[in-house]
Amino acid sequence: MRRSLLCWYGAQGRDLPWRRSRDPYAIWVSEIMLQQTQVKTVIPYYERWLAQFPTVTALAAADQTQVLKAWEGLGYYARARNLHRAAQVIVEQHGGQFPADLSTALTLPGIGRTTAGGILSAAFNQPVPILDGNVKRVLARLLAVAVPPNRALAALWQASEALLDPQRPRDFNQALMDLGATCCTPRNPACLLCPWQPHCLAHQRNMQNELPIAETRAPLPHKQIGVAVIWNEQGHILIDRRKPEGLLGGLWEFPGGKIEPGETVQDCIRREIWEELGIEIEVGDRLIVIDHAYTHFRVTLNVYHCRHLSGDPQPIECDEVRWVTAAELDQFPFPKANLQIIAAIRAAST
DNA sequence: GATCCGTGGTG
DNA sequence: TCACCAAGGAT
């Protein structure tokens, strides 16, 4: 079984930038970026990141705004914050070298069992198993697991470890992920091309389209949000930096908040700006309406031009506030939905 | 152990 | 349009 998979990998494996490297730092960066994120999305971010932060020392020395700006648009921003912190730990406590043993790697922020296995096998050819989304699906089909994969984690980890090739753990783990990504796909798997088809219980039972069993999910709530683009008499715009933890932590945004039942958008914006920044504004024309979906809810951003009337903005429910020119907005990391607001501001002023 | 955490691709 | 999913981890 190992040989058939490795043979398939030799012929069908993907040529990916990080596979050409044995630098633990570069491989680590790729593993973090690839969490819940597709290869095609990651590649340009990976290339830019290594050009900007070529070593763990360079990353450790960067400031968080630079780091978040380089991550802007990738999502799950805690990954960038943790990567940054871990780089500082590696410089301060591990002599600038990524730890080569599993238990130490697992102490670093942002590194769990799968990521640690991915790094240690790829960088050091250590026989450490992995269990990412691809491997869960491959093994759930191979073994015809009768419950959602997340209800069978112990068995799946055991299988990943038992199957792992002790001679070629690097290639084996990469092969297993490629098999899931390109052959044993979520829908319409290419069983005829699969090296493990003779061993696959799902295929033998013609259940490859029914497995793995899907997790049940709650419906997504939908929130209406009022957002203010506040101008002062100098033609500057007010932005704020979100608190360092939680949703979009550390990123900048245009201030606003949730519209309460029975409240107009304009009332909401005036109230939120008073509560969060302690200033009075006049709500003017509508700038843009943006629908955006997060993992656990959807939002509609109702964005309005506003005019500053009185008061000095205070960081009451955020970390920092700042008046900036439209040209300066590019220097700050914003969430994706806010980039649309910036584009609308530019379009409206030309 | 259930929830939280972004964004883009896909059928 | 929409649900599902992607090289998961932290709390």
Write up what this structure looks like.
- The chain contains 14 helices and 7 strands.
- It is α+β, with helices and mostly antiparallel strands and 350 residues long.
- Helix 1 crosses helix 11, helix 2 (24-33) crosses helix 3 (39-52) and helix 9 (133-142) crosses helix 11.
- The chain is elongated, with a radius of gyration of 24 Å.
- The mean pLDDT is 96.
- The chain binds a DNA duplex (11 and 11 nucleotides) through residues 30-42, 73-79, 82, 109-115, 118, 130-135, 173-174, 177, 180-181, 186-188, 214, 217, 220, 246-249, 292-296, 335-336.
- Mg(2+) binds at residues 256, 276.
Give the C-alpha Rg.
24 Å
CATH superfamily heading of the largest domain: Hypothetical protein, domain 2
CATH class group of the largest domain: Mainly Alpha
User: Given the helix and strand composition, which structural class is it?
Assistant: alpha+beta
CATH topology of the largest domain: Endonuclease III, domain 1
The tally of beta strands, per DSSP, is 7
Rounded average pLDDT: 96
Strand % is 5-15%
Mass-distribution shape: elongated
> Total number of helical segments?
14
Kindly state the percentage of residues in helix.
40-55%
Detail the poorly predicted runs.
Answer: none
Cross-sheet strand order for the largest sheet: 4-1-6-5
Specify the CATH architecture of the largest domain. Answer: Orthogonal Bundle
